[in-house]
TrEMBL record:
Superkingdom as given in the UniProt entry: Bacteria
Protein known as: Ger(X)C family spore germination protein
Species name: Paenibacillus rhizovicinus
Keyword Cytoplasm found: no
Keyword Chaperone: no
Keywords per UniProt: Germination, Lipoprotein, Membrane, Palmitate, Signal
Pfam family, one: Spore_GerAC_N
Amino acid sequence: MKRGLAVVALCLLLSLTLTGCWDQLSLKKQLFVDIVGVDYAGESKRLAVSFVIASLREANQGGGKPSSLYMNATGESLYDSATRINQDLPGILSVQQTRLYLISPRFAKDEPLTGLSASGQFISNPLYAYLAMYDGDLSKLLSKKKVHDQTINDYLIGVLDDQLKRGRIPSNKMLHYILGGEELVNDFALNLFEPSGEGARLAGTALFRDGKYTGIKLDNEETLLACLLNGTGAANQPLNGQVEGKPYTVQVQQAKHDFRFVFNKEGLREIDLSLKLGVKLVEDGHFERKHTKQTRAKMEKAIEADLDSMAATLIAKLQKANCDYFQLGHELAAYHPKLYKGMNWRVQYPKLAIKPNVKITILNTGVLE
């Protein structure tokens, strides 16, 4: 197995080989790694691994102040890097409670992630850790002590937690990659951080094909729309757009998605993706302030057209990346196996007619309630 394929598997193995059982080692000797960052060292294929270790300052009975310890090492493998750190630290690294694995774009582009499913064989694995990408200097980011009065680990993980609760980002939990199987993790969109001021911010998602980063990204609005088209439940997400150059904002209250394969005698003709949204109109810079049935219908049609255009741009990016994020190939194989077997899905997917159809129902009677 390639070194990149086994990154998380090695992390999990590390938790077994370096920490042992809880009844054999004192809790005080455990160094709980909150974040693991993985990049290449310089122009080589050696791994530059960063560890952010959670700790408490001024610890006393009942609490203390959250703090973090940053360590990094370069090695032939993750295990080698961790071993080098353990030689310099009193205590033993433990990844049993790691909350985030953060990888660099060049590592993601070069090393497939489909092998993550193999790590399910280990007993102590951080199944609920996030997997994300950072388009910047990993060591510079993870060595920061504070971002907006929070430790760097609490800040990054807090951003992911909040956005996931709102339904604005894909989950990207290790559970998916470990237990989903290779067929489910080939094409996906990984949450993407980028530098911002003294810290970092979410900048959409990075598209992966066959487990490799394609270099193509979705921005934040496209990521939200992709989540809705993929069946993420509504949670008051704001959707922003423009009609005739003027902005509008709606809050999604209800969302229902579906897809339909359309055939002719030659085979698959097109795929229709439908999305029905019940929304509240929050900001309206274009339409009249007094809403009648006619003006509301006009607004619905205009917003539908705008979102259809956004969805078409999103789908074009997915097809350019040859990233089957919506897993349409798996759906076709499940419901029409004979047709799927006669296709070369990877070759034909970028050329398929995939048409979005967004339907809007405005639920409120005024611009603001």
